[in-house]
Structure formats: C-alpha cells, structure tokens
Specification:
Blueprint (H helix, E strand, L loop, with lengths): L1 H14 L9 E8 L3 H10 L4 H7 L1 E3 L1 H13 L4 E5 L6 H11 L4
Parallel strand pairs: 1-2, 1-3
Helix pairs in contact: 4-5
Length: 104
C-alpha cells in the first residue's frame, strides 16, 4: 500500500496537484475470529481460505486485525473500508465492533 500511495504522490507532483489534498484510502475484506476454528468457519462461509485472507485481507484474531489496520495507517491510509462479505453472520459484526474497532 505504501508503494501505491507513493505512486499517487508522484503522479500528483508530476501534474502539479497537491498530494495532501487527496484522501488516501483502502478497502479490505475482513474475517475475524477469536480462535482458529471460528476464523476457519468464517473464511469457509466466504469461500476463501484462511491463508489467502491473511495474505490479502484483514484476517485473523482481533489483535492481528488491529495490527494490520495500524500497518495501513503507517503506510498512509487515512480511511480503511472493512468489507464484510457474510451479512448473515451478525456475531462477526459484533466481534469486529466489540474487539477491533475500539482499538483503532
């Protein structure tokens, strides 16, 4: 993400636009589980593997997700959109709201 934001800043400089006038954002699929069994079940409901989601999204324990959100912030993201794909799993939303969001 830092490299992508860097390319945006370079493009702004090349065109004379103030890079600070932009909002730097990212969207990531989120899959949170307090334990590996919950995480695996939620990943399966999305039709994705846990390893893939960990590599390409915000997946893992609440602490892992908080750390990944911090990494996006360090890369320059000002806004991060959490893509919740399984809208039937209301406990997932509650876990994110209770265990992740208060820490970011």
């Amino acid at each position: 993400m830092a490299a992508q934001f860097g390319r945006v800043r370079e493009a702004c400089a090349a065109t004379g636009r103030d890079a600070g006038s932009l909002v730097y954002s990212a969207a990531q699929v989120v899959c949170c589980g307090k334990d590996e069994a919950t995480l695996s079940r939620r990943a399966a409901a999305l039709g994705r593997g846990v390893a893939e989601l960990r590599a390409d999204g915000l997946a893992g324990s609440p602490a892992e997700i908080v750390d990944k959100v911090a990494a996006f912030a360090e890369a320059g993201a000002q806004t991060l959109y959490l893509q919740v794909l399984d809208l039937d799993d209301l406990d997932h939303l509650a876990d994110i709201a209770d265990q992740v969001l208060p820490q970011v």
